[in-house]
Write a structure and sequence with these properties.
Elements (H helix, E strand, L loop, with lengths): L1 H6 L13 H8 L3 E3 L19 E9 L2 E10 L10 H42 L5 H15 L4 E12 L4 E13 L20 H9 L3 E4 L7 H9 L2 E11 L2 E11 L7 H67 L8 H31 L8 E4 H12 L8 E7 L5 E4 L1 H18 L3 E11 L5 E9 L6 H4 L23 H11 L4 E5 L5 E8 L3 H11 L1 H6 L12 E6 L3 H11 L4 E6 L5 H8 L3 E4 L8 H10 L8 E6 L7 E3 L3 E4 L4 H11 L7 E5 L3 H14 L3 E5 L2 H10 L4 E5 L7 H10 L8 E5 L5 H17 L4 H19 L1
Parallel strand pairs: 10-12, 16-17, 16-18, 18-19, 21-25, 22-23, 22-24, 24-25
Antiparallel strand pairs: 1-2, 2-3, 4-5, 4-8, 6-7, 7-8, 9-11, 12-13, 13-15, 14-15, 19-20
Helix pairs in contact: 3-4, 3-7, 4-7, 7-8, 7-19, 8-12, 9-10, 10-12, 20-21, 21-22
Length: about 800
Amino acid sequence: GAGAEALLKNGTQHTVGAPTVIGQVTSTGEMLAVDDLSSDERFSAPDELPESRSELCLPLQVGNRIIGVADLHSAQPQAFTQEDLPALQILSDQLAIAVDNARSYELANQRAQEMSLLFEISRTLSGAPLEIEELARIITEQFSRLLDAPSCTLSVILNEYDEFNEIYHPTMRIVGIHQREDAPPSRHEVGEVSHLWRAKLLDEVLQTLEPVTLTLDASDLHPEERRYMQEHGLGTLLIIPLAAKGEALGVVEVEIPGEKRRFSESQLDLAMTAATSAAVSLENARLYQEQRETAERLKEVDTLKTQFLANMSHELRTPLNSIIGFSRVILKGIDGPINEMQEQDLSAIYNSGQHLLSLINDILDLSKIEAGKMEIAQEEIDLNMMIQSVMSTAVGLTKDKPIQLLRETDDNLPIITGDTTRVRQVLLNLISNAAKFVEEGHIKVIARVRPSQQGGQEVYLAVEDTGPGIAPEDQSKLFKPFSQVDGSPTRKTGGTGLGLSISKRFIEMHGGQIGVDSEIGKGSTFWFTLPVTSPEDSQLVSDEATAGEEIAQEEPETTMHPAPKVVLSIDDNTQVINLYERYLNNHGYQVVALTDPTEAVARAKALRPHAITLDIMMPNVDGWAVLEALKGDPETRDIPVLVCSIVREEEKGFSLGATDYLVKPILEEDLVHALQRLDKNGDIHRVLVVDDSDEDLRLVERIIQENTNYEPMLAPGGQAALSVLQTSAPDAIILDLYMPDLDGFTVLDTIRSDPRLHNLPVIILTGGDLTNEQRAYLKEKSQALMHKAELQEEEFLSHLEELLATLSTQQG
């Protein structure tokens, strides 16, 4: 009846050993029959079955285990007779087996589902990204799914640096939060300190590395924990520790709003297994992040070192400009006659300045190589001519010693491909080193072709000397930066110890090798090899070298028009180059496009163009670095470069920049040649020199006065230059870029925006070898210049053609 249904409903609990029939049977494991519950003093009828008079309870037993009972009731007394018992016993035994099988199947099925879910979580975590934020999102999402929790939070322990106290201290911060759609909004944010930090509960979890479950109705709940759960509307809070190799990394908080939930032992075991996988993934992510941060710090340190070297070299060049320049001026007698003693002193000053400049250049070369910014040109190298040139220079190195300069080279050395300047630098460095240590005897330059280890051919170049020789244990030091065989303060020869290290880098960048053969008392032979270019590659080089001639010959010889003047246009935007072509081709110019700025020097050497247009604002390559490279190579430095940049394509906004570029220390010949290139038709009379350095102003003034017929006008800074430009218009300007009051770009902006001055030739003056900050400065300033001084298409092209025509007159 209804009472029986109520008694047997699912979830009714009975206590083992309780003073009931069921309690006694579960304790003894023996069948028990009560004939009349109303008269039996031991038991009474259950509240759910008040009409029950007799009760029979049989244990459901499998082996020695009692897994339940079969409890029978009747409204009649003595309803169960002895004859019923055997059959009922057999029935209970069969029922016990069936119940046990069903329960075992259910447990196995549940375990299989749990293991499948655990495997899926482990697989997800093992393939998770190594960024902690993304990993934290995955961990909290998986724990929410595993424990059917609306909200999960992951907090990790971090060692944070306290700048005020200059110490590291641990802090636990939230790194991940997962909220199901049915969960109330979280009051936490990623990045904030966990509310558990410094709490007694957290200490317990981190020390025992065991999970802790809190329920709001627990009598032993800490007041702070109770307040937190009440404020967040939580009925249950589960804290799961994350630990790897016995070290606590953090905790996962599983929040159950409202309801009181008991997690089974099986669920907690499963959660701890998942926590182990999560901890391993978290530790890997933390190690990865630490390694990445370390790599970034090392990269930053390397960048700072490179920038420091470049900055120091730049600062040293400024006083060298005065030392070298003024000593040369006085030695030439510009300031009047000098006596023999004064000439010796000034020569010592001049030579020391040149020596210091070479040391600075070595440091700059090394910093460029280490920063990965050293580029090797690809051009044809005539080794016979190069060796002859180097030996002519080397005569001055041995003029004060009884040393013979000898040459032993093959008559037909092949033309190889490489950077002439760098190979020449290496060979001259080896001869210079030999000249330092050889007191008498000979220095011999050797060059021959031999088979290479790769199966082709290579050129073997060597410098043999009759010096003191080098011990085997010292030979390993030779090609290391800042290393010297004799590093003592009393050594006879100076230097930074960079020459051979830089030479090694240059040769390796050419695909060759460098080394030394030496023996104490028998002299030394420093050698290096260069691969011989294959015939196919040689043909390619040859084709590129003659490209300029082919362009000049494209027009039939029968035409009455002069051959077009080649203009090399370096720009990543082909539409801009097409615009140049459409306009300039009609004015007698042949535009050659170059969209890869890294080939600028090689292409300029091959074409020998009339002029170069250069876009400074290119996305992947710094136009100022291209300009530096062009002006730093002896074969391309005299080619006029016009900075032409577009700002907004839709408005065709263009601007024109400098027409030449000089690097301090200013060499007399370079400055004079730069002015002569601009004034072959004699239009230049007055030259405005703008520089914040009084010494540099005086030096440039003296060079112009003594070597040209121009009138120098001096402006000690950018502001003074603008004042001069308002009252008078010079014929050319020599402009320093870096001035504290008003930088060179602001001056250039004024020039290009003034109709009287927009075609005025401007020679940029800089310290050279720019740092990253200086390049960024140039980019920012030139971008601002383009916005301020942009010209519309027709106006821009007209100015460009005027400048090119002026150059044509000068070069004609």
